[in-house]
Amino acid sequence: MPAPFPGDRLKEARRRRGLTQEALAERANLSVGVIKKLERGGTGRLETYHVLARALKVRTSALLEPAGPHETRRSDDDNILEKPCSVPVSAYVTRHNVQSRTC
Predict the structure, then answer these.
(1) Alpha-carbon distance 74 to 94, whole Å?
(2) Measuring CA to CA, how many Å separate 13 from each of 2, 17, 27, 52, 56?
(3) In a domain, 18, yes or no
(4) Residue 1 covered by a domain
(5) Count of alpha carbons within 13 Å of 61, Cβ hemisphere only?
(6) What is the tally of structural domains in the chain?
(7) What CATH number is associated with residue 32?
(8) Averaged over 38-59, what is the pLDDT?
(9) How far apart are the C-alpha atoms of 27 and 38, rounded to whole Å?
């Protein structure tokens, strides 16, 4: 069963790679205090998790999501618009619901 919290998943990933908190901090160019805080359950910025994921050679989602990375990823076959809509999204958001829109 995967660890329930990001700090637990961070600690697991660090230990799987045989790294100390100090070694991970050096690799990620962060302070040891940040690593300790996150592993104890403290909160961190998303960018901090990105940096840690790169240092651990894992996806950021492996640190943040209880089930790890999603099994499905976006592919070239996905139906995605090639260019953004010219109408601002705020034009479609009402006080109580979001209306569907097409471009």
Answers:
(1) 29
(2) 11, 6, 14, 10, 7
(3) yes
(4) no
(5) 7
(6) 1
(7) 1.10.260.40
(8) 94
(9) 16
32: containing domain: 6-64
Which residue type occupies 37? K
Our measurement of the distance from residue 10's CA atom to the centroid of its chain's CA atoms, rounded to an integer in Å, reads 12
pLDDT at 40: 95
Has residue 46 been placed in a domain?
Answer: yes
Task: Give 1's pLDDT tier (boundaries 50, 70, 90).
Answer: low
On whether residue 22 sits in a domain, the answer given is yes
Q: How far is 34 from 21, CA to CA, in rounded Å?
A: 10
Residue 22: C-alpha distances to residues 53, 63, 83, 84 (Å): 16, 18, 45, 44
H-helix or E-strand spanning residue 74:
none
Could you tell me the two tokens for 11? Answer: 């600690």
pTM: 0.63
C-alpha dihedral, 37 to 55 to 60 to 83, nearest 10°: 130
